[in-house]
Design brief:
single chain, mainly alpha, Amino acid/polyamine transporter I, 74% helix, 1% strand, globular
Length: 435
């Protein structure tokens, strides 16, 4: 193929890191701690859960990086499991990505975006609930289906702005009004430590960290992918873990515990406690920017999975990527993603999405990381291979234990997971027979 015919790879290391950060810093960090505190009852235990979640995510990022060194195409879990296990397992993983990994997660971020950008107390009588969430999804779909290169530049700028704004909020919380931390002096509830409650909380928190694997969905569009994709996964995950721990310390300990427990907008609660109405408005703007970039990044990543499935002949051919201006743009897959996310955003609430998404994505990610044990990267020394195997084993064991305990505590999660898997099996054989 001549140089003029080759497809441009628009993602450099910085763009790949920005994609990871944008996928991770989304609705979860700004909503989960309120639900977690209501469930667990102790702020120290919630912080412990965030720390454990970060370490597990770093292990997952390292493991996914090894898989990306082996298979340098776009497609994520679908691609890894199809090539290294069996096409039917890969298809189910792709189906999970379609329903949960991206559709549900985009809807979750969009609904949270609306709760911060247009809070209920500020909505005029004529406002229809869901307008802002649906509009954010459609705008991102338009941006990335029509003008990919400009969309990536916009994405990088928004992510940089998001990190700067979150940094400003952190500085504000610690330096400007350190005497307004009412929650520091509050006495903790004498809540009995519950392994099951912690496990459920960690499954929720794992959703906040789940974007650590974002770069593998666009591996085929990344320059020097065997180097840049693993680096982007690790660096992006470490950055976000540090940001999460500091943010949640502010969310949990600046306001009184009773103000935080069960609150779906913990960042706004913390801001109100620290600086009143004006600061609350500023923080709502910061979080809205963060959530919009999360919707944007998932609209970029998700459709690459369905395009790859269509290319392999296990999904309708209409969803393959079309090469336009030397860029592979899965336009039809993007609008499928937009349509499904709009439907879910219109009929779901935050906590029900947390339960379904956290459990389903945890199980799928653990199965994908297990591929490390039968994939070897050429030129990798035995000692490095052992190290990567230990990291992968740690991720798998912790994730499966937490998912199992969470399912015992909230058995309704199994219903959504079972329906997703069974419907994926049926569709695999239907599509295969038609093709």
């Amino acid at each position: 193929m001549s140089d003029t015919q080759q497809t441009i790879k628009p993602f450099g290391l910085v763009s790949a890191i920005c994609l990871v950060v944008a996928n991770m810093v989304g609705a979860g960090v700004f909503t989960t701690s309120g639900f977690s505190l209501a469930d667990v009852g102790n702020r120290q235990h919630v912080m412990l859960a965030w720390g454990i979640g970060g370490l597990v995510a770093i292990c997952g990022a390292i493991s996914y990086g090894q898989l990306a060194r082996r298979i340098t195409e776009s497609g994520g879990e679908y691609l890894f499991l199809s090539r290294l296990v069996h096409p039917v397992v890969g298809f189910i993983a792709g189906w999970v990505s379609l329903l949960a990994g991206f559709t549900g997660a985009i809807a979750f971020a969009a609904v949270a975006f609306e709760s911060y950008a247009v809070p209920e107390s500020m909505r005029p009588d004529w406002y229809v609930t869901g307008t802002a969430s649906i509009l954010s999804i459609v705008v991102c779909g338009t941006l990335h289906s029509l003008v990919l290169r400009s969309g990536l530049i916009t994405q990088n700028i928004v992510v940089a702005a998001k990190l700067l704004l979150l940094g400003a909020f952190i500085v504000f919380g610690f330096a400007v009004f350190p005497d307004r931390w009412e929650g520091l002096a509050a006495v903790e509830q004498t809540t009995e430590f519950s392994v099951y409650a912690i496990a459920s909380t960690l499954v929720w928190i794992s959703l906040s960290y789940s974007g650590f694997n974002a770069a593998v969905y666009v591996t085929g569009e990344v320059k020097n992918p065997t180097v840049n994709v693993p680096r982007a996964l690790l660096l992006g995950t470490v950055i976000v873990t540090v940001v999460y721990l500091v943010l949640n310390y502010i969310f949990l300990f600046a306001p009184l515990p009773g103000q935080v427990a069960g609150a779906p907008d913990v960042a706004a609660v913390a801001a109100r406690s620290l600086g009143g109405g004006v600061i609350t408005t500023i923080v709502r703007i910061i979080v809205s920017v963060a959530l919009f970039s999360s919707v944007s990044s998932m609209v970029i990543a998700g459709p690459r999975v369905y395009a790859k499935m269509a290319e392999d002949g296990v999904f309708p051919n209409i969803f393959t990527a079309a090469t336009r201006n030397r860029l592979d743009v899965p336009t039809t897959a993007i609008w499928l993603q937009v349509a499904l996310a709009v439907i879910v955003a219109s009929f779901s609430n935050l906590q029900s999405l947390l339960d379904y998404l956290g459990f389903t994505l945890s199980v799928t990610a653990a199965l994908t990381v297990a591929c490390v044990f039968w994939s070897r990267v050429e030129g990798q020394s035995r000692s490095r291979s052992v190290w990567f195997s230990v990291v992968a084993a740690l991720y798998i064991v912790v994730t499966i234990i937490l998912a199992t305990l969470s399912a015992i505590n909230r058995p309704q999660q199994l219903i959504g997971f079972a329906v997703t898997v069974l419907s994926g099996l049926v569709l695999f054989f239907v599509f295969r027979r038609r093709s």
